[in-house]
Amino acid sequence: MIIMRSRFDEQLNHLRKKMIEMGAECENIIALATKALFDGNVEEALRAKEEGIKIDELEREIESICLKLLLQQQPVAKDLRIISAALKMITDMERIGDQAEDIAAIVATLNGRVGDECIYISAMAEATIKMVTGSIDAYVNEDLSLAKEVLKHDDLVDEAFISAKASLIKMIANNINDGEYALDLLMIAKYFERIGDHATNIAEWVIFSVTGIHQQGG
Amino acid sequence: MTNKIFRSIIVTSMVVLITSLFVASSFLYSHFNKSQVIRLKEELSIVAASVEEFGDDYFDNFNSSYFRLTLVAPDGVVLYDSQTDAKQMENHLDREEIAEALETGKGSSNRYSSTLGNRTYYEAVLLKNGNVLRLSVNQITVGVLIFAMLPAVLSIILVALLLAMVLANNMAKSVVKPLNEMDIENLIENDNYEELAPMINKINRQHHKIAKQMQELNQKTDEFRQITDAMNEGLVLLNKEGIVISINAAAKELFEVDDSAVGRDFLSIERSIRMSQAIKKALEGKHSELREERKGNEYQFIFNRIESEGNTKGIVILSFDITEKAFAERNRREFTANVSHELKTPLQSIIGSAELLEKDLVKPEDTKRFIDNIKKEATRLVSLINDIIDLSQLDENNALEQEVVDLYEVTKEVVEALALMAQQKEVKIEVDGEPCEMKGMRRYLYEIIYNLCDNAIRYSESGSKVKINLKKKNGSIVLAVADEGIGIAPEHQSRIFERFYRVDKSHSKETGGKGLGLAIVKNAVAYHGGTIRIDSRIGKGTTITVIF
Fold first, then answer.
1. Residues of B near A (CB-CB distance < 8 A)?
2. Is residue B398 part of a domain?
3. CA separation, residue B53 to residues A182, B15, B46, B127, B404 (Å)
4. Quick one: pLDDT at residue A95?
5. Last residue of some domain: B365, B393, B421?
6. Which residue of B has its CA nearest to A27?
7. Which of A12, A15, A17, A58 to mutate to test the interface with B (most CBs of B within 10 A)?
8. What is the pLDDT of residues A36-53, one digit of tens each?
9. Count of domains forming chain B
10. A172 occurs within a structural domain
11. B421: in domain
12. Residue B349: domain span
């Protein structure tokens, strides 16, 4: 029994490591996509797309680890929460990866035009990166207060999105030739906003895995 | 232990009890048998006497379930039996006891009846009328005996068991009690059982040994900790699973963790992908390095595998703050680029003029102007190179021969040298001071004052004043050069002493500076162990104070 337990702990540890790894990949891909956006660097954008494949692989790997743990060990209480939260979190992380990839894909079509013409987008990028890092840090350290901070942060991102939208409408009004560019930026802003939502979800699952209470939020 | 003692006492007492019961009952059994036979004989003699006296009437009154009475005629025919019908019975002449009685007057025998499953004792006696009277009794079987004894035996066992349990419990407790009350910390002081003395001694010795080893270990850990904590470089030791074994103060600060980091997965402290990859590479036995920016500083990380007898034991991570080194590298790169640029500009001018002269494209009356230009640029080049040589000499920090120099004299020299330039710019120079002698390199001190004054005049507007103030104060010499010029913005003030740094980015030649003057001042002042203070406001003027 003790041997089985320690094997279980080992597997949980392995799961944890993989989760942190996946979190780090998410942070990395957002950083790459953002850098590509503000440097107008198409090559960086393409690299971000490659990184996305790694995240998908990690998602599948973690999924199989979780299922194996559920089937073989039949965990209860906190162990069960950790595993089920992990299963939910990887979905969010995978979506974060996808959206970062989408941002990179748009950057690739901007033909080197830099995305800093709307200040709200850089603010959004900064805020969402902070949220993703915060939610992963909260997972790593099982830090409830940090997770709750991430939840609060989401409102800021939402506000920034509204401001970005307004400023992009102004941009189109000023120069109709910037229409396509402005729409691209709007999409990017939306992706950032979605990334923020996924970070919020991750933070909620962190709270669930620690306390057992899952807050239903936006 | 209590249980064990309790159990063995119970078992022992039960074994003793049962054995004694068994022995007692076997004695009893043989005693019973003997007394039965004696009683049988006595009964027979009584019965025989009664039969002799009362005749056959006796048989009618005989009533016993215990004894069996049989009367046999001399020819063996059974005349009477107390338990069966005599007529049905076979001839008894061949019975051992009958035959014996007929012969000797008395007979006895015992037989085992397989049909009844018990033994029967027979006693026979010859009556006066020639008949044989036989009395028999069934032997009491062990089973009957035990069955009869059962209630008594059971109650004895029960009482004994209860008694044994209580006693055993008490006894076990009293045996174990001193053991339980032993003072574990001071084993040697326990003398309850002398049988335990050797063990206690041994444990005590080991106890001391362990305590000593622990102390040594703690001391070593402490030493290691103190040494590593005193290091400026960050040091992290990981085992091969990536768990932090040790982390020093510098690394704790760098990774923003506290002591709780020890025992945790390094990944949970630092999850950057580049870092993970570097660790992975190091685990494969390859040396790996990483440069990363942290908290505004640039750090170099070195990852190495720790090996012991060919097995990977872990990873050591060293981090260095290379901000200054990186800054110096960047400065050197910039300096080289600037020097090349500054050297190239006058040379191109010289080459251009020379080419024009070579191809006779210059009007004779302009020739002098071109040659003047070449000379001017060449002079500029030489002075630039001189400046660079000065700077590099100051960089080398060679201890050159020092002499006693009067700064006031030097200042006057400088003012003379710059008089023409000041006149051209219509700037008035005022010198206020006293003779101040100090030990130093005359050439460098001259350079300091010259460059400060040169700058002051250069950035002054016509009609303004440049004041040079030289005085002794608290044992040190204070040199202040003040102008009423354009002033320097605060964000530039810290950088104007960098080589080729210009407030005016266009490198305009309007003022004609080379961009090395203040760098030479800074290094020369540093060479003489002085300090520089700058006090400037845009539009109001600048005062640079040098204190030796």
1. 242, 265, 267-268, 271-273, 276
2. no
3. 151, 56, 11, 11, 173
4. 92
5. B393
6. B272
7. A17
8. 888 877 777 788 878 888
9. 5
10. yes
11. yes
12. 330-393
